[in-house]
């Protein structure tokens, strides 16, 4: 299992975004293209690794959490909430600040209510800025976070909660190395 993901990572190009070594991969960028078999492989691995007991909603972040969230939602029949990068000004919307290794912005959460039990999933965790922002937004509405899982972990960010990763990687200026897997 995860052979496709590991192969895609070990053949990922790396570019500079400022000082940040940014790897380019189908799962994290949709570039150059995303094979359905790779998406299925990841969906199955998430189903096997997440605690799905009594989960009301899956929460993902725009943009590169969406395809993973859709696959996972269709496999589990659990509704999907997409945290957006633009406001809708709906009642109860929560805004939080997001900072990554190469960008800053605001995130807007709608569709999660007090008492909901949710899982957060994303493509990658690097500095942890995005997951910390998502956790803060969900805590502000009074929902319960049952589990958090990303496909790819790089670095050792502290998000203040347990984090599941399908694979862990190291990124140099020229290449990606897979150093651990969940299996
Ligand atoms: O751990 P971090 O340093 O926060 O990095 C992880 C985040 O970076 C990417 O999102 P990004 O905001 O670049 O946008 P995108 O999904 O729209 O490409 C990725 O999809 C993660 O959400
Ligand atoms: N594609 C991609 N997304 C990221 N999100 C945070 N770091 C990275 C990275 O190196 N590559």
Automatic annotation (TrEMBL):
Pathway note: Purine metabolism; IMP biosynthesis via salvage pathway; IMP from hypoxanthine: step 1/1
Molecular function, one GO term: guanine phosphoribosyltransferase activity
Catalytic activity: IMP + diphosphate = hypoxanthine + 5-phospho-alpha-D-ribose 1-diphosphate; GMP + diphosphate = guanine + 5-phospho-alpha-D-ribose 1-diphosphate
Gene it is expressed from: hpt
Protein's recorded name: Hypoxanthine/guanine phosphoribosyltransferase
Entries under Gene3D superfamilies matching the protein: 3.40.50.2020
Xref: InterPro entries: HGPRTase-like, PRTase-like, PRTase_dom, Pur/Pyrimidine_PRTase
Membership in a protein family: Belongs to the purine/pyrimidine phosphoribosyltransferase family. Archaeal HPRT subfamily.
Subcellular location field: Cytoplasm
Subunit structure: Homodimer.
Domain called Phosphoribosyltransferase: residue spans: 53-181
Record carries keyword RNA-binding: no
Keywords: Cytoplasm, Glycosyltransferase, Purine salvage, Transferase
Coiled-coil ranges (or none): none
GO terms under cellular component: cytoplasm
Cited function: Catalyzes a salvage reaction resulting in the formation of IMP that is energically less costly than de novo synthesis.
Keyword Mitochondrion: no
EC number in record: 2.4.2.8
GO biological process: IMP salvage; purine ribonucleoside salvage
